[in-house]
Amino acid sequence: MFDSPLSASAYDVLGVEPTADDDALRRAYRLRLRQTHPDTGGDAAVFIQVQRAWELVGEPAARAAYDRGHGFGAASFSPDAPVWRPPRAAADTRPRARSHGQPGGWRRERYLDLMREWVGRGVELDDPYDPALVRTAPRELRRMLADALAEEATARIVADLGMGYTIWHDVLAVGRGMESDAKIDHIVLGPSGLYGVLSEDFGGPVRVRRSELVGDGVAGAPIAELLARMRVVARAAGVRFGGAIVVLPDDDVEQPIDEIGRVKGTQVAVVSRSALSTVLRRGITGTRSIGGNEVFDVRTRLQQTIRFA
Question: Which CATH superfamily, name and number, covers 10-69?
């Protein structure tokens, strides 16, 4: 919840300054509990955030650790640790899914370019992932980094699906009406079907309303945009997608798996990150499983057609 570049700090959630003393912090916590409690008309998702914020800064030792890291673990923003890479056979000999492309690669490159531009030309940027620097960056930059981290997290999950699956990351959707940088974060092909996957982090709770995502951090129409890009790739490759999946951080969804039904002819599900493997293995209700020669044919068509961002 608080390890996203877009999320409010624990102090923001509690409504106090980082310099508040322990008594002020405790009073703010109790006030926010009353304000957000579902029994008094508050938002359940915000209520949970308030409790989590207190866990992070309510005790002196925890608060000191939080303040040192500004709410971000060093590993979370290391330029090396969060980047997905194919696992080495020597470290793990289990069969892995076939993977193509670099998840989060386009957004990381864009983030670094924007960060250097924002800091200023001629200024040496020692660590573009420094938590203090990220905190002060414009939302556009933080959003770019958050999306890159979300894509990398999804890539680590789908890599473990097994050799029966093939995944393409950062796939361009080149077609009429599409922006030059329009892409699908992941395309996953396996026994349960062919899926277009969107990895997102909006920095807060997200809900589904009228077959679309809504929330304070949601801009545009993410589900509609994903479906439009899937249609472009499907026409170019001569394949048919079975479903579309939106993956969100566990803390940002009301339920782990929300199958919202058919949208513009395609079955759509919004799932928490921890539930993604389950959905990809069993499929979305209403989608058709594929196998044998059909999987080979679809994989060949996509391999011959796909371009990467």
Answer: DnaJ domain (1.10.287.110)
